[in-house]
Structure formats: structure tokens, C-alpha cells
């Protein structure tokens, strides 16, 4: 199999997509699951702080930090979009493990948010996040379009997979 040309990374904010969620959810290493209200209530009860909803200024900080991290690591940033409850990034990070890319994005964005927002928040991101491998130029165009323009169009809906 060929090496990927990019990774399509999605990271939900802390507490915004819990196990059991009414939209469906992803169980780690087991895949997509149907909604389960009791499980969602249990996850909600275990949260240590409120769900993280980013305002426009915080979203700008996240996007700035992603660009800075990619530049520093010499990764190719094809597209990014930080929303109020999740972020997407399409990154060419050759010879870097995709989990390391996701981990670095979360860590550096967390540092920047803590430093520049004067927030006492400890949890900004969900524990993991989705990583999809992009192998062709056609796939790359499709995920870039989704990230930049089409997240709300039904025919391009992409569910998190990890």
C-alpha cells in the first residue's frame, strides 16, 4: 500500500461528543455505535468541568497555533477549520506518525489557549480524535472542500472513525 499524502484530523472539544451521544459515537478500537442515553448520562456525570465551547477569539488562536506548529514541524497544512465544538485539520506530515501529529496539535493549542485566554480550564479537547489517512489527490480535494466549505452538506458528511 502507498504512503498517505495527508492526514485528515478531527478533534472534538472536551465534553461535546460523549459516549452514548444521540448522534451516535465512536468506541475506541471498536468503531461506530448507536446512541445510548444511559451511557451518555454516565459520561456526563464523570466530567470534571463543563463542555468546552470555543468563542471566535479562541478559535482564531487555535488556527494560528496549528499553522505555527505545522511551520515549525515542517508539515504541510492543506486546510484547517476550528469550530466552536471541534476542529479539523488536513496535514501532510511525512515521516511523522499520525497520532504524534494529533498529539502535538492538541498539546500546542492547549498551551496557547491557557496562556492567552486567562482561563482556569484544564480540559480543552476530547481524549483522542479521528485520524483518516488520505492517499489520493481526489481524496485530498474532497477533505479540503469539506473542511473549508462543506461541513454541513449532507452528501459530504464525514463521521469520526476513531
Automatic annotation (TrEMBL):
It comes from the Bacteria. GO terms for molecular function: DNA binding; transposase activity. Residues 53-147 form the Transposase IS200-like domain. One of its GO terms (biological process) is DNA transposition. Signal peptide: none annotated. InterPro entries: Transposase_17 (IPR002686), Transposase_17_sf (IPR036515). Pfam families: Y1_Tnp (PF01797). This is Transposase IS200 like protein. It comes from Crateriforma conspicua. The lineage of its organism: Bacteria, Pseudomonadati, Planctomycetota, Planctomycetia, Planctomycetales.
